[in-house]
Amino acid sequence: MELKKESMTVTLTNEADENREYTIRGAVHVSDGKYASADNGSVFDTTGAYVANFNAGQDESLSIRYQDGTLTDAQRVSVLNLIQDFIASAKAEVNEATE
Asked: Is 72 exposed, middle or buried (0-12, 13-18, 19+ CB in 10 A)?
């Protein structure tokens, strides 16, 4: 019997990257073999402190909530760039895995 993957959810993280400045993870949703969205994204600093959470919708919308009010503007930009990189990498990873 041949089965088709219609949808699935996979948790992706950068924990294997020993040189990471922040740890990021999120539940990535796949629909019809393509990236659909990311939910419950979390960002932690090197001490394990919770820094931000995010959700990225199917319509390319992005919501971020910074948890640490002591972050500098530069750190917030760094977290935003990390989240954007995560989404781009998730799209590539999911599309490659379902081909």
From this structure: exposed
